[in-house]
Amino acid sequence: MHKYDLRLVADEIQNYADAVSKIANVEVEVVDRDLKRIAGTGYYKDKIGVDMSDKGYVNKHVMETKELIVITNPGENELCANCPDRDNCIETFEVTTPIFIEDEVIGVLGLIGLDDMSRSLLENNLENYLDFVRQITNFISAVMVNYYQEEENLSYMGTLKTIISYLQEAVIVLDSNNVISFINKSAENQIGLDENSIGLKINYSTPGDKVGSGSEYFIEVNGHRRYVVGEIVNVDNEKFNKILLFEGIRKVKSELYDMTSTISRSDIIGSSEVTKNLLDRIAQISKSNSTVLITGESGTGKELIATSIWQNSDRANNRFISINCAAIPETLLESELFGYTRGAFTGADSRGKIGKFELANSGVIFLDEIGDMPIYLQSKILRVLENRVVTRLGSNKEIPLDIRVIAATNKDLSKMIKEGRFREDLYYRLNVIPIEARPLRERKADIVDLTLLFVERYTKLFGKNYKGIDDEVMDALLNYNWPGNVRELENAIEFMINMMGQDGRLTLDTVPRDILVNKNIVGDEEIKTLCQLEKDEIIKALSKYGKTTEAKKIVAESLGIGVATLYRKIKQYEIEELSF
Ligand SMILES: Nc1ncnc2c1ncn2[C@@H]1O[C@H](COP(=O)(O)OP(=O)(O)OP(=O)(O)O)[C@@H](O)[C@H]1O
């Protein structure tokens, strides 16, 4: 609650007092709640500022009773009994009115007659004067309320301006004619304006394209043109009509990239000849701009090879944009790659979207699992590679591209070409520099290096105390054929570190069963007798289907023998005695 202080609007009150005095032919005075005269006309004009607390008995009375009072006999009225000027009072008539804000009296206004003429004027038109005086006190309280409201608004504005000027995000406030009412430092810097930009007119337009969380806008002011990304908020006000919140498009693209990028920046590890040759190859081709096609089984490190090429290239400081063509639903893949403009197709975000090709501009795009690309998109990709331009869906603006393309697949593209599932022309476009990521089983030395790498990684991660790995464990790892390649090895080591006991040793007990069971698939495995093989398969089938008479029929069928033969062999190998 304010302590309303009429002195703050004393000048305006004085103007009212002068006007009223002229119209009504009487003198006017206004005192504040402390009984200080803050406005006065005629005789009272010189006495503005005078403290009347020792004589303003009538005023004091009005303040206490909150009632208007008419005094027809100043000096003789009982309220004047204690007034020091009682005997030489110059007033002939007085109408004293409280000035209210809600039910609080914040001051008093007096209409005063100083001669008989004004006295009879007041007396004869009393009702009219009373109405008039009430109106005037209402005006004064409105002036007071406005004053505080404006003060409050100004202080809000001041606080807001301070906050906005510290924001990293650029903010421009426009009036209804798109003229700058307010602008922060960040906006001035981003557009290249100096400090005198308030009052300049802005032109802006939007193609409706979405970049990250905002829309793209083209801004033009005082000869400066910029593409920015942000929002326009409409405010229903003449002076503060729109608020433009934005960031430069370069910054937005890089934030978007940081947000979506999951690039592993680890090095390619491995001392095998295969890996050494691979590293030489990468060093050799990194500086070139030609398209690379990496082929190889899943988990062999194709993406790692791609990032390594990028990091060794002149584009290392620009982006590496990876898109997994198999992981994105076919219906979304096209818009992910090419982007789209507002309303390009049903279901599209109403503001549009920037595509991966565009996002990769001046960097590298990695098209992973290219073999899973639908055939109609293969043609579009081919055109992008040939013409080096991209067009957002729903737009006809061609955006020039300066990108290096690296594609990867674990599919047999030659076979797919024969089956009509992969375009031959695209294959040749991609396969300018072929790189093969060889299966882990073909580079045994890497198994040792990678095992040690992953052991170190996961002991650290799990805070375990590692002492060493048993020889037979390493043998088991070397003898396994690793169909899931490096990814599978990494998962196996993670499992083993989990299983490792207090002694900190990786023993056979920690090795996943699959690896132990299958370790004899390749390498110098022992040769089983046919009888042993037969017995093993019968046990396996019985374990799977059961030992009941009914189950044995299925077992016999699955082994491709008659039920009688099955019974005979069970007996022969003494299988019934075994528990399974
Ligand atoms: N030589 C290596 N040195 C270190 N880590 C490796 C190596 N090769 C692969 N990795 C790791 O193995 C995992 C699988 O590699 P990556 O994702 O590159 O394989 P990929 O061939 O692209 O697999 P997919 O075909 O399934 O996409 C990754 O965590 C990667 O860092």
Oligomer: single chain
Give the count of structural domains: 5
Number of strands: 23
Name the helicity range.
Answer: 40-55%
CATH class of the largest domain: Alpha Beta
CATH superfamily of the largest domain: P-loop containing nucleotide triphosphate hydrolases
Strand content: 15-25%
Number of discrete helical segments: 20
Shape descriptor: elongated
What CATH calls the topology of the largest domain is Rossmann fold
Name the hetero compounds present.
adenosine-5'-triphosphate
Tell me the structural class. alpha+beta
How many angstroms separate the termini?
87 Å
Main pleated sheet: 7 strands, antiparallel
CATH architecture call of the largest domain: 3-Layer(aba) Sandwich
Q: Provide the low-confidence segments as ranges.
A: 520-524
Supply Rg. Answer: 45 Å
- Look at the structure and give the mean pLDDT: 85
Keywords: ATP-binding, Nucleotide-binding, Transcription, Transcription regulation
Domain Sigma-54 factor interaction: 268-498
Protein name: AAA family ATPase
GO molecular function, one term: ATP binding
Please write out the topology:
Blueprint: H1 10-24, E1 27-32, E2 37-40, H2 57-65, E3 69-71, E4 93-101, E5 104-113, H3 116-124, H4 126-166, E6 170-174, E7 180-183, H5 185-191, E8 202-205, E9 210-211, E10 214-221, E11 224-234, E12 242-248, H6 249-260, H7 273-285, E13 292-295, H8 302-311, E14 320-324, H9 330-338, E15 339-340, E16 353-354, H10 356-359, E17 364-368, H11 375-387, E18 389-391, E19 398-400, E20 404-409, H12 413-418, H13 424-430, E21 433-436, H14 444-462, E22 468-469, H15 471-479, H16 485-499, E23 505-506, H17 513-517, H18 530-545, H19 549-559, H20 563-572
Parallel strand pairs: 13-20, 13-21, 14-17, 17-20, 22-23
Antiparallel strand pairs: 1-2, 1-5, 3-4, 4-5, 6-7, 6-12, 8-10, 9-10, 10-11, 11-12, 15-16, 18-19
The structure holds adenosine-5'-triphosphate (ATP).
Adenosine-5'-triphosphate (ATP) is lined by residues 264, 266, 268-270, 296, 298-304, 368, 410, 437, 450, 486-487, 490.
Pfam families: AAA_lid_14 (PF25601), HTH_8 (PF02954), Sigma54_activat (PF00158)
Domain Sigma-54 factor interaction: 268-498
Protein name: AAA family ATPase
